[in-house]
Amino acid sequence: MTVTKQNTHSYTTTCCYCGVGCGIVVNKDKKGNITVEGDKNHPVNRGMLCSKGMNLHYAANDKTDRLLYPQVRFNKNMPLQRVGWDMALERTAAVFKTFINKYGPDSVAFYVSGQCLTEEYYVINKLIKGFIGSNNIDTNSRLCMSSAVVGYKMALGEDSVPVCYDDIELADCFFVTGANPAWCHPILWRRVEAHKAANPNVKIIVADPRKTDTCSIADVHLQINPGTDITLNHAIGRLLIENGDVDFDFIKNHTEGFEQYKQIVFSKTLSEAAKICGISEEDIQLAARHIGNAKGFITMWTMGLNQSAVGVNKNLSLINLNLITGHIGKPGSGPFSLTGQPNAMGGREVGGLANMLPAHRNLANPAHRKEVENFWGGTAIADKPGLTATEMFEALNSGRLKAIWIICTNPLVSMPDVRMVEEGLKKAKFVVVQDASNKPETLKYADVILPAATWTEKEGTMTNSERRISYLNKIVDAPGEALPDAEIICRFAQKMGYHGFDFPDFSAIYDEHARLTAGTNIDITGLNYQIIKEKKTVQWPYPQHETGRGTQRLFTDKIFYTPSRKAILHPVPDEITSEKPDADFPFILTTGRIRDQWHTMSRSGKVNKLKQHIAQAFIEINPEDARRLNIKEDDVVDIRSRRGEVRVKAKLTTGIKKGVVFLPMHWGKILGNDLNRTNNVTSSLVDPLSKEPDFKFCAVHVEKYQKP
Ligand code: SF4
């Protein structure tokens, strides 16, 4: 909706950074420059914006780094040259057809992004799965949310976040684990802070090897050893059972697996668990008492649990706490995975991952495949899952994968063991890079570059962490010849000769996506652009004849999506399968975000104000470890793993445990030097079920840099 003010037009949209999904009012002046302010009428942020959101206009107005026209390299020895859209897409289609004919559909792949809009995800997924005949589509959301997806599916029967943000003000105990929402989900966390300030009896438990800003309002900070989350969650589970603080009626009537769960949590004493976790028994007891006393209990987590070689098990061990206490499907209670990216949820809804089908249908289920196949009317959907994010680059290295199309993501900074990824791109026979920015390192390896429109330059929808769908307005024209991603894909599909991609506009793509959700648990057949705009935002499911704002909470009837309709308690083992530290690599490295930067900094890195918080990459190290290694504040330090090295300045803090170091994940190559790039050292291990990488745990050697 637009409102005309003096010489400006105002539009509502949604922040394109994190999964909180704050509403933004964009004011556009006569020259087309924009400013932003928080949308006071938006139910998520009620007018507030964090530092990243409130400075979005600086990044959006700066077009100096934009890709402006398509470019093609006609063979590997030639430079890129400017071409028109038809030529770029015809060339790409010709190369794709050659590989598909010669090596089969699995010789090509799309690697996309949680920044893509739902419509974009939908058409890319339809193209590769429904027409090319491969499931080789994966997304950088694999790097952040896939363990939660599998955890929800195994425990609740489907990838379904049960809670909503309004539950925050109804809860009296929060267990925040493997997350630093004070920095990474700031506006959501401000709601928790305000709730606690108004209600001092609200208890906050934080589990994290680092003392982050989130701990500043914690009643208990469980500063656990990295990787010991499951041991901690089991110990809390045991105490809840021992103290009689579980809901036996709920367990009996609505769950399966309690006896096996009891066996596993009672297999370690409290004292054994405390020793493994590196914290006191008293602190675990206090946390369990707070949870046991709660009337409304929310578990909140993100990458600290998900980005692990046992990420799914970590998720399950946490969801178990909600299940044994019956804190799910009621106001103020539930497990709540905080989504990293703005539309990771939308990507999951359309099935835009290597092992999923639209509307949470199951790729392994022949009936589900047939349903989607019939709907799309293309080729048979392959029954075997496609390559996941890390597998794609491994397959480029081995030569199994010939062509990769990278959309709106920067794998040469964000992928684990990134030098392996770079080797893969060097060996790739054909690389297409579709991006708004001319900065990603991937462009160096591109055979085709396609300029994409970005935030405010295209319309579409996104879904935030609480299943809230919002509409994003097109507010300004894209520079040069840049096009919306969905349009690029539809034009390409038509060059390939596929039908079903001649959508008259983006709302028609959304309508098709909505129709395909009919009869599923995420039914949004009652939605279209007009309704989303009228309602401003809605939460799925939103079936036909729905008249309100959608579904705030799931499982209020205590009926779960499993075959038995009961939630499943999984008795997961608490072993740590990450790379073990040893004499050569004695430190555990954990990685994460800083407050004012976003991912690989392609947008936030353009804003001077945001650099004022922290301007350079750094390593956090405990002062006792630093003293032993003769490292002082701001000394340059070498960090080495079995895969590579990083060289950054030291930041000494007692907020990190001895034996553990932390690197932020944002920085890539600077002037050709890749020693700021944290992922030179991270591990290529992944969770066996979710295939999410183990970013939070690898063995490293740390020493003061000595000039040669
Ligand atoms: Fe944007 Fe997230 Fe900040 Fe909200 S909390 S303004 S969605 S970055």
TrEMBL record:
4Fe-4S Mo/W bis-MGD-type domain ranges (all copies): 8-64
Select a single GO molecular function from the record's annotations and give it. Answer: 4 iron, 4 sulfur cluster binding
Q: Can you name the source organism?
A: Paraflavisolibacter caeni
The family this protein is said to belong to: Belongs to the prokaryotic molybdopterin-containing oxidoreductase family. NasA/NapA/NarB subfamily.
Q: Name one GO cellular component term.
A: membrane
Q: Which GO terms describe its biological process?
A: cellular respiration; nitrate assimilation
Report the protein's function.
Catalytic subunit of the periplasmic nitrate reductase complex NapAB. Receives electrons from NapB and catalyzes the reduction of nitrate to nitrite.
Q: Which residues of the full protein are shown?
A: 1 to 708 of 1187
User: What is the enzyme's main class?
Assistant: oxidoreductase
The protein's name in its UniProt record:
nitrate reductase (cytochrome)
Q: What are its E.C. numbers?
A: 1.9.6.1
Q: Name the reaction it catalyses.
A: 2 Fe(II)-[cytochrome] + nitrate + 2 H(+) = 2 Fe(III)-[cytochrome] + nitrite + H2O
* Organism taxonomic ancestry: Bacteria, Pseudomonadati, Bacteroidota, Chitinophagia, Chitinophagales
Q: Which UniProt keywords apply?
A: 4Fe-4S, Electron transport, FAD, Flavoprotein, Iron, Iron-sulfur, Metal-binding, Molybdenum, Nitrate assimilation, Oxidoreductase, Periplasm, Signal, Transport
Which cofactor does this sequence's record say it needs? Mo-bis(molybdopterin guanine dinucleotide); [4Fe-4S] cluster; FAD
Q: Which domain of life is it from?
A: Bacteria
